[in-house]
Amino acid sequence: MDTIRLLPDVVANQIAAGEVIQRPSSCLKELVENSIDASATRIQIILRDSGRTLLQVIDNGKGMSEMDARLAFERHATSKIAQASDLFQIHTLGFRGEALPSICAVAQVELQTRRAQDEVGIRLEIDGSQLVLQEPVSCTQGTNIRVKNLFYNVPVRRKFLKSDQTEMRNVVNEFLRIALAYPNVQFTLVHQDEIIYDLPTGSEKQRIESLFQKSQRNLFSRQLLEIQCDTELVSIRGFVAKPESANKQPQQYFFVNGRYMRHPYFHKAIMTAYQGMVSGEDVPSYFIYMEVDPQTIDVNIHPTKTEIKFENEQPIFQILMASVREALGKFNISPALDFDAIGKIEMPVPTKQTISQTVDAPVTTRVNDYNPFKAHSFQIDSTPWQPLYESAAQLVRHNQPEPESFLFESQGEITKCYQYASRYILCSSREGLMVIDQHRAHIRILYNLYYRQMERAASSSQRLLFPEVWDVDEVDMDLVNHLLYDLRQLGFELEQLDKRAFTIIGIPPQMQAAAAIPTLAQMVLDVKETDTNIREESRKKMALRLAIQTAIPYGKVLSEDEMHHLVEQLLSGDMNRITPDGKTIITIFEQDEIEKRF
Ligand code: ADP
Ligand code: MG
Q1: Are 125 and 254 part of one and the same domain?
Q2: Measured in angstroms, how far is the CA atom of residue 71 from the centroid of ligand 1?
């Protein structure tokens, strides 16, 4: 006896529904996408019980003829593609012709629709795939579809749903994806008779703003940097968040040709561009809109079409990473010091005299044999600082109309710095009250210096009066020999004594002799940990170790000059918001935040 038989449509549709319609949010997605495909400019969404009992979408799109309305509920009935080759030329969100029949298989659906050219519209009621009513109706142009009691006839599915709260969150997430992709469409979202979103049309940035802004004054868009790039393969527009606004709940969106997508590989491109700028688990927000030739992507690999395959994945990765880097580079000039009267910190600041009473007379002249461990000759940095300021001026020139006066004339009279808890420096910036960790700031400054020194072979060293002997494990000898050149660039003059020892003849000028051996030993450990042979990596480790060793410690009271010097050096250098090992250096309290507290 033959055992294969064709499934009745009702059953087939229920099975298909399992793929396309998993929960209220997926139903919402399909309905709203249909409205967009019908060129609607105004879409209203009305929900009850997170969409379980009612999910209604009203649009002002082109509507359907009587025939089309009937056909729309048949499987694989679509007006959007006619032949297989059309699959590679998709300009609409839907094309599989599955959504409406799937929804009808698992809910009670009422549809009302009218085209502009028709006098009357049509009204249909469908109950678990069965047409129960069809009648003419007078209604406005467009489509009004009500999906009631989702999964009323599929208890297993119903059980599978999460709490109302979770389902609502899914619904809102789905809504955000569409609303972000179509800022030229007016949306309202109503839940339990309460307006959740009412979005006017506008630019993408305005749409982002109306969806995510926290308060009138705390504009989300202020944290965004624009990116824009047109190439033959792809055109990319959008926004990425400033590194300091990275957090544990970022908003991350990719769109391609008006369709939201998940794309872990492109996500990686963006994260790579942020490398070294965001710390720890903090992740930046981004909103990326890509346009590509539809022939170069495959949206059909997944029923909900959120996973998309790109023909030119690798070059697009590079283009995306470069565009994000450029945007970040333009921005990373540093939080500009604010020399205007506005925003100045007005609090009593200890003067030089008051500080000198508490510590040994701070020396502010810049000497090259500065030793941070000698309490009596404190100075921020022994580096020739002129070049740093020159590069700062170049950087600032990008952004500031009068860079010279900005950095140089004001040097002696910049906003006052205030030290807190012998650990933080407070000063005023354009963006708000800036709080700087003194130790970490100095680590960043020194690290940049040491790293450059290694690259440019521009070292200086202080000779030790009494050379020290450094005993090295025999297994590490090869490694140390391998590092000798870079160590010399950092200022370590080493001579091999025998099979397991070196004589230390010279050390970096910033260093105290007693710290030399422990630092060298720690560097060897650090480099061993990198488990890569890439020289750049070992250099980074060494520069960081030396910077940590020689940076101003916590607990060090700083004079105002020292603070100014430190702050200016920090802000004029690269990557000044976090240390090379990812710790926050600067945090900014925005004025609104401060005002809110009063
Ligand atoms: P698809 O979107 O893949 O074509 P659907 O099942 O979602 O399949 O919709 C079937 C058809 O019904 C669409 O191709 C379209 O012609 C019509 N349709 C659905 N919703 C609307 C709407 N809101 N306005 C106008 N036409 C619609
Ligand atoms: Mg559709």
Answers
A1: no
A2: 10
